[in-house]
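Tutorial handout. Part one gives the primary structure; part two gives the three-dimensional structure as tokens.
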Amino acid sequence: MDRLVYIITYPFIWLISKLNFSSIYIVSNLLYYPIYYIFSYRKKVVRKNLELAFPNKSIKERKRIEKENFRNLTDIFLETFKSTNIEEDELKRRFIFKNPEVLEKIYNNNQDVIVMCSHYCSWEWVFGVGNITNFNINAVYKQLSNKYFDKLTKSRRSQYGANMIKTKDTYREISRLSKLEGLNFYGFASDQSPKKSKAVYWSNFLNNYVPIHVGAEVIAKKYNMALVFMDVQKIKRGFYEASFSLITKKPNDFKNYQITEEYIKLVEKQVRKKPEYYTWTHKRFKHRQKNPI
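Part two.
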């Protein structure tokens, strides 16, 4: 079945990858209406997430965010497909890294770095980061259930030299790489909800008391890695800017989970500024509990 789904879907992906961006956004405009109004793709999930995250906003305001979120979602879908056939110069023009000197200072300090980000705006084009740094680029990702799409995703994300690490292999692979020559950049998107059975830390995120991923902090402390937050902002349709902000070069100076708290605060600030660009289609608060404090 996985193979059949892939065979049926791939021609559409290939076609989109061959279009210019003007045509892609025409298709995106057309797709928005059936996805939102007819198929209602995860609309209930998005609506519930917004209700939980922004209880003080009016229904009208949350509806506006919801609609803009779906318009952005169709753009992201098609931009992802375009990634399989985009020239490097075009990518550099559309996704700009504003302050790579933050990474350069860490590299010159002979230290590995974990770069933490969220599923906000565009996360597919960040793999061009290998063009602006000397670090070996590694990215932790969740393996897709369809092995054919998983292979395509890995191929697309590694085309600029990134080494893709499955979440279940994270600790083992980082341990292996730590013994090799060269400095490593590890990309973590740590804003998704961990499995409840594996939750070791809970905190407030967007008005909800939920479990938070702590793997980046744990690894940074074990291997004395610097930690950086990457904030991606949408400048206009198809154009993004990413900026880096140093969280710490000395992770072991922090109490347990203090770094994770700092990261969550940065993500929350990012989301509150322009909530329409966050990925609300996932159940962000499925394990929420009453705050014990």
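Part three, for discussion. The chain has one domain: 2-277. Residues 116 and 226 are 11 Å apart (CA to CA).
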